[in-house]
Amino acid sequence: MGLAIATGLWLAYSGMIALCLGLERHYKQVWGRPPSSSRRRALRATGWLALAASFAASVAAWGWAMGPIGGLGLVSLAGLALVLVLPYQPRLAIGTAVAGWPVLALATLAG
Amino acid sequence: MKQKTITQSLSWLHTWSGLLFGWVLFAIFLTGTLAVFDKEIDNWLRPEIPAHSLDSREAAQTALDYLQARHPHARTWNIGLPNERAPTLSVSTGEQRRGGGQALDPETGELLQVRETAGGGFFFRFHFTLNLPRLLGIWVVGLAAMAMLAALVSGIVIHKKFFKEFFTFRPAKGQRSWLDAHNATGVLVLPFHLMITYTGLVIFYLIYMPAASDALFGGDREALNRALRGMPEQHAGQGRQPPQEVAGPAPLTALPPLLAEAERVLGPLASLSIHNPGRGDARIEVRPLLGNRIELTKGQSMVFDGVTGKVLRAPAESRPSLLTQRVLAGMHFAQFGGYPMRWLYFVCGLASCAMIATGLVLFTVKRRRRHDGEGALGAALYTGAERINVSVVAGLALACVGLLWANRLLPFELAQRGGWEVRVFFLIWLATLLHACLRPWLRAWQEQLGLTAALCLGLPLLNVVTVNRGDYIPLEVTILVIGGLLAACAWKIGQPAPERALRVRTEVN
Amino acid sequence: MRRERGATRPQGLQTVNLSWPMLSRIVAAVLGGYAFTYAFTAALARLLPLQPADALIVATVLSFAVYTGAILWAFACRSATRAWAGLALGVPLALIGFWPQLLERLG
């Protein structure tokens, strides 16, 4: 259960980052140049997919009755964390999402 | 022009309902957020209760042995069982149904000398009654919740363009930053805000809106309850009423198998009551712990024959409509989904607090440099709002942690010790208001946040110095983190004053 | 944003603008809105094709959304008079909700 929730949280965070970078202003904020329109579309699609996967992970962890509540909560908090870190350390905000996945994979293997 | 007027008047609604009810809403949300961990706080407040590894069946047997030895003639025995969140095993006699009672040592079966305390339940009760008389408090909190709903929905309408600026937060830019922070905490956590406010209203739905019950049942609650249970006569005759003839003596059935059966049906158990123990008409009523499912199962129970151990009444399944209401109420109580869900509610609750607090600050920041033109009344209002903000936000946090300190520092034997803890809570809160009125505005923020941070950071130390027992690592780590964050806030307020003044000036021009 | 404010001071930023129409709107929202919601809930519970207990729960659980809507209506519509006019719809709703009681009263 803990692992499913951690996966859900990380998917939510990664999804929020992808959605965020799918907006021109924030892409510029992080990389200093505007995104191509195909990249923007890809980022947005990835973002929504990740959020959907996060929702699925929550349902897997809590079941159909409680899962949606937990899933919405995870997405909210992931978004809030991103918004708070982004203006201070934009690269760190993205690095965390990337670095989280190997950690999660290790935890899965270990557990 | 028409469009603009609508936005304007909704923004008026948002601003003023947000300000006037924001103060009481902050208090409701902060104590509600703490109440997510009410049992854990309660454990901290009763350090005399030892941790143990007994399961609920063994603990129940211990309690039963005690009651049989000490209160053989009581009409009713009540046993509160320990669970995952709280190690307390409590016993009482008589019609006391829930809570209260004396704590037993689950290992030795002896009474424990536990300090009298307001307990973690204080935050829970304050959350929905504000410590007012119960019904009055429920109405005030309900009114505030309606104001919250109105402010949320009007906020969505007037801030609608901020959905486009979903991820935008521009720190250290004065008013702009406060607005960003208010929007970010409001918009991103919006599902939680709406859910928690609406489900809060649904808990007391028939108190707040008795219209349908007046129209369909003529306000007759008895008839209504019978209709809700869908079993007209059965319930009325059961349990509470004393039987006509007194049954002869008969030994009580063995508890463990009975509890095992109850656990199989109900999930983890919270408490049991044994009516007429030692007699032929003994009844054992077992109540489940809330949180095996979302549905708020408060009031549900299973009744056994105390002599034969047979099930007399299985828990009633709620009809779909009632289930809906109970699921909504259960979503508010957050007793389901275990600790991960509890943490989610806690952090989302903090985000709600942050949204309300940033909204309150935004109100004064927006008007801070503009109230010269508003006359004396306007100036007085804004100054007053600034002071109250300090006391409501920082002062309440100080009062909450102050209650924990009072729990350790008040003398053990003090009469009405629990009442004194509450008194300390309110005295501190009042003192913060005075302090906020006397000190310069920013200094007041800084000092109150700083003191709160110091009390949070010192709490583990206080525990070691005063009682030096108990294992509270999760709670203490949490409170250290909160203390650290508050200290950072206090430090930040003290820091870039010249820069801030400059920025305000350039923004005005 | 700042420029706009200087030009047409929005109401939200003034203190002593508690004019009569505004006061009227507040009363309409809080009291009128509650009365309207009360009537609406009673009528809805009466009209829903469910058993009384179910209709009662559904109508009452929904009532808070109705109240919120009524409050917003009182502030969003063009004038205070209109706000009251809208909420006056509560009267026929109350008649629907309480007609058995009314008949009893009348004879």
UniProtKB/TrEMBL annotation, chain A:
Q: Give the record's keywords alphabetically.
A: Membrane, Transmembrane, Transmembrane helix
Against Pfam families, the record matches this protein to:
DUF3325
TM region positions = 46-64, 69-86, 92-110
- Reply yes or no: does the keyword Transmembrane apply: yes
Q: Tell me the InterPro entries matching this sequence.
A: DUF3325 (IPR021762)
Entry protein name? DUF3325 domain-containing protein
Per the UniProt entry, what species is this protein from, by scientific name? Pseudomonas peradeniyensis
From TrEMBL, chain B:
For this UniProt record, the keywords arranged alphabetically read as follows:
Membrane, Transmembrane, Transmembrane helix
Keyword Translocase, does the record have it? no
Could you list the residue ranges that cross the membrane?
12-37, 136-158, 179-208, 343-365, 386-405, 425-442, 449-466, 472-493
Q: What is this protein called?
A: PepSY domain-containing protein
Q: Please give the organism.
A: Pseudomonas peradeniyensis
The opening ranks of the lineage are:
Bacteria, Pseudomonadati, Pseudomonadota, Gammaproteobacteria, Pseudomonadales
